[in-house]
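Late entry, written up from scratch paper. The run itself happened at the end of the previous shift, but nothing got recorded in the book at the time, so transcribing now.
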Amino acid sequence: MSSSNDTDTAIIFASSLGGHVRKTAKYIAEKLGCDIFDLKLQTNIDVTAYDRVIFGTGIHAGRPYSKVSNYIADHRADLSSKKTALFICCLYKGERGEQQCQDIAGQFGISDAVFFPDSGEKNEAGVSKDADSFIERMGA
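Output as recorded:
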């Protein structure tokens, strides 16, 4: 997708046919002015130039998309010195969504994680309103 290396943040995501994760990743990247990589199009992503890497995934059958899981597992050494964050687009709201988010973040070893319910309230761009507070936090 995009790689200019003039930013300290990269977003790496995998999306389904529904496109919620892709739309959310593009929105976050635009607002933060960071590079964005789609694991469906590119799997050889060098993160050494970045201070922070934000991962985006959806959920299928209770599990994060394998492209994201595999990338994190395969690049754990490169990611160990980075600030990492995670956003999940999922069906669940409330406690169930929070628990799913915590479980997946724990699996990935990422402590800074949020979830955006597909059926939640949307902003003017058509993504979860919660994405705006996540962007604010990431931009700080």
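The beta strands are 9-13, 35-38, 52-60, 63-64, 83-90, 113-117.
(Scratch paper discarded after transcription.)
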